[in-house]
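Changelog note: in this version the structure field was regenerated for every chain. One regenerated record is shown below for reference.
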Amino acid sequence: MQQSRITLVADEAAPGVKARSTTAADLLIATCLAAAAAGDSNALFDLGVAYSTGSHGAGCDMIEAHKWFNLAAVGGHEEAAHCRADIADEMTAREIAEAQRRAREWLRSGREAA
């Protein structure tokens, strides 16, 4: 059986995304990133979950998780707002500021939050 080969490319708007092995987990993250760029708040939330738990091919990164939860919350995802608050309790003020900066960059790059 042949596996699909997907390479995730890091960019300034998503600095936590790095190239990894070509697995189904990579496909999930790539699919979520594409849906998130189109404004799917559920995909934004799913990215927050992946980064907050270190699952589905994403490394555990609370700054990235906060960014994705924040974007999902802005898009009207109620559970994302609760998750963002939960992980913010474990973060420093600098980490939260960095997550917010990354969320603003994502929005400035022309991607949607809702």
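Spot check on this record: Helices lie at 24-37, 41-53, 62-74, 78-88, 93-108. Residues 1-13, 15-20 have pLDDT under 50 and may be disordered.
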